[in-house]
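README: folding subset

This subset contains proteins for which both the sequence and a predicted structure token string are available. Records are stored as plain text. Below is the entry for tRNA-splicing ligase RtcB (488 residues), shown exactly as it appears on disk.
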Amino acid sequence: MTTYDADGITLHKVRDYVWEIPQDESEGMRAPARVLASETLLDEISDDMSLQQLKNATHLPGIQKYALAMPDAHQGYGFPVGGVGATDAENGCISPGAVGFDINCGVRMMKTNLRYEDVRGREEELVEALFENVPTGLGAGGIFEGSVADVNRILQGGVEWALAEDWAVPEDLAHCEDEGKRPDAEPSKVPEEAKQRGRKQVGSLGSGNHFLEVQRVTDVFREDVAREFGLVEDQVVVLIHCGSRGLGHQTCQDYVRDIEKRHSGFVDQLPDRDLAAAPAGSQLAEDYYGAMCACINFAWVNRQLIMHRTRQVFEDVFDRDWEAMEMDLLYDVAHNIAKKEVHEVNGKEKELFVHRKGATRAFPAGRPELPAAYRDVGQPVIIPGSMGAGSYVLRGGENSLSETFGSTAHGAGRTMSRTQAKQDYWGGDVQTDLREQQHVYVKAQSGATIAEEAPGVYKDVDEVVRVSDALGIGDKVARTFPVCNIKG
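--- output ---
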């Protein structure tokens, strides 16, 4: 097959797993669009509006090379989830819609020296303790509830604030993207209403697809890299997935509205108002970037406090110090973000806004942005699967910089809407099946949440990762499987 047709959009096969929608200037496209997928995944990606949204993204002023859809792509608001778009930081634009409402939604993995046999038979005790101690659900309170002044300090300092307040140890910062702090953060640019929402939610999972999952390592694919990451078969690890909660959502919402009002002529050039973008160099673009970086810091603190509380729960359940269980952070990486990064374009280095919406940074060895611990081996990349499937740890692939601006997938990717999922699945049945058939213990605020996140609503994460590995943008290191899971 050399072409693929989907509802009037024709993709041309560039090579295995690389499909391109050619640039059509008469339609306003400023660059081609590329989809990185197998034919099986392409069938699923083409079932919704992902391809049209990707094509729309090529209209963003200053977009470089091509707009990209990762193997897990699915329909989002304006910009597809699983999308990557790099725009000229001097003459292009920045788009809140290409970042997403949950700014710095991301994942962190914590290692332990426990083995699966240490947890087997205690799953129910562990899941109950985690659910009782880690706030979950829509609008839920947090582990830390402070003042707006506290929120401002979090927005400015990121995980440095958590360290100063004894919620972290220095090694946690050393194993977090950007050491847990965006220096470009400007708390004054975050709306006051967002801060009011955020002050009650520091250290909370939220709802939807956010979760805390205890897992076991089932497979190691690259032993040398796994050794550097500290991963071995049968090891127990903990995966935390959440973002900036109501603070990030309010910030995105307010800036989209402001951009639509103050740069209406600019926005009117775009085929979808949900792509609303501010021109690079404008005051609103600078304000949004400062606010977004502050929200990024908030999200890192959010995951840090959840990890701190998880350490305490493990101490209570297993009756030993977390240090004795070697509950150390492997890595924390964002997957809803726009960052100023320098990349080579047409043989020249250029500063870009790299928008990753449901896409993970995947830098190979040697990039100066990587922590010292991983600079020689490549960045850890964490790809969550569903509650009934494996998750993966990858490392940034050698081809990621040339192919995807240093990016890969962020998860399995949905194939079914939440509304449809609740019609097709009953949460109690999903919970029972997971426990009885796969020995996975799940607890959530409601059965509806479990139904929305049923394993059947997601793409095959094995196939998503296989494509990433084959393209050399994210190399398989290890696979994990759920033991127990708490959700909002």
